[in-house]
Amino acid sequence: MSQFQILWILVLFSAIIVPHELGHLALAKIFNVKVLKFSLGFGPALIKRKFSETEWVLSCVLVGGYVKLLGEDPREKIEEWEKDRAYCTQPIWKRACIVVVGSLTNVLFAMLVMTFVYAYGFRATTTEIGDVKEGSPAMLAGVKAGDVVTEVAGIKTDRWEKIPPVLNRNVGKVVDMQVKRGVDTLVAKMRVEKQTVMDVVRRRQDIAFVGIKPADRHFVARENIFNAARMGIAKTVDMAILVFVALVQLMRGVISAKELGGPLMIIRTVKEQLSFGLQNYLIVMAFLCVNIGCLNLLPIPSFDGGHLLFMLVEKIRKKPLSFKATLTIQRIGVSLIIVLMTFVVWNDLQKIAGK
Questions:
Q1: pTM surpassing 0.90?
Q2: What's the CA dihedral at 271, 272, 275, 276 to 10 degrees?
Q3: Fewest CB atoms less than 10 Å from the CB: which of 17, 201, 241, 300?
Q4: What is the pLDDT of residues 190-240, one digit of tens each?
Q5: Which fold has domain 123-221?
Q6: Half-sphere exposure at residue 218, Cβ-oriented, CA atoms within 13 angstroms
């Protein structure tokens, strides 16, 4: 692996971790909760600097990070004059907000990244038709390979990615497809049929079918900032939905646990996507940010979702769990995470060895 690739992999991991932890830190400071330490990474410290009341640390293992708040550890001795600024003395709603904002910041950062991708320039497919299926609605309407689609159902199309959404809104209807053939412009009328396919998370999806496929021709497309922001937000929401659906499918056994990937697969994916350019790298970054943001909300001890679960129990019981009970549950959670990480790394090794 080259130094260039190592640098971009470190940038990727930092881009996932830093927004999440900065979200915790920023809201804690807004709520006047004392932040003792902000650490990027774990293990021995490489760099330490203290600004105001917060120690900033760069550690040698750049996988993860944390924010340490005053009063986060129940055993911690807190001076009387600082009790109002301790995390443990804050009302549940404030503590919950501080916990949730990390994941929210991950998602917001992913939206910004995707907005930049759409504004800076992204790889799009031309509307030239590469293949027309025998006996399909498009063939019956006279459409041929080499035709360039310019309009579908009255909506102009300048890239292939705009065609499926329009067709999906018109399943069962007859639509006009305007195509350019040489110097001629033709209008083909065709009925949009329904086709059932399996998507990436093994869901059965009904999609439009007219029997055309794009030619393998691409160009760099750009959107104005407003369209880029709209598309970036929509794409990030789609990513978040995909993560949760994949989790449900995994629990149902529809997706095999062997398909789970870990840090080694992330590194391999980043290396592959770097070869395709900045756009692909940034899309991977955004998707991993959304993954981390969503997975952190799972009710697993040591995850942000685990802290929220403890708060819910506290709200119901009218008092927090004992320190001993909390510590035991957290140890179980850490053990589960270690088992899961071991499993996904083993999966990674199997996939790499089988390549």
A1: no
A2: -130
A3: 241
A4: 999 998 887 766 778 888 999 999 999 999 999 999 999 999 999 999 999
A5: Pdz3 Domain (2.30.42)
A6: 7
Q: How many CA atoms lie within 13 A of 128 on its CB side?
A: 12
Cα separations in angstroms, 27 against 20, 23, 42, 67 = 11, 6, 22, 12
Ranking 41-55, 97-111, 170-184, 251-265 by mean pLDDT, the lowest is 251-265
Tokens 């995707």 correspond to 114
The per-residue DSSP string of 255-293 comes to S-GGG---HHHHHHHHHHHHTT-HHHHHHHHHHHHHHHH
Sequence ranges of the domains in the chain: 3-31+90-121+255-354, 123-221
40 touches 58 (CB < 8 A): yes
Q: Are 258 and 349 in contact (CB under 8 A)?
A: no
Question: Phi, psi (5° rounding) for residue 148?
Answer: -115, 120
Look at the block and give the residue holding tokens 């986060």: 72
CB contact set of 123 (below 8 Å; sequence gap of 6+): 218, 219, 220, 221, 276, 277, 279, 280
Return the SS3 of 130.
Answer: strand
Contact 286, 275 (CB under 8 A): no
How far, rounded to the nearest angstrom, does the alpha carbon of residue 149 sit from its chain's CA centroid? 32
246 phi, psi to nearest 5 deg = -60, -40
* Terminal CA-CA length for the chain: 17
What does the alpha-carbon distance between residue 86 and residue 32 come to, in Å, rounded to a whole number?
9
Residue with tokens 């998370």: 201
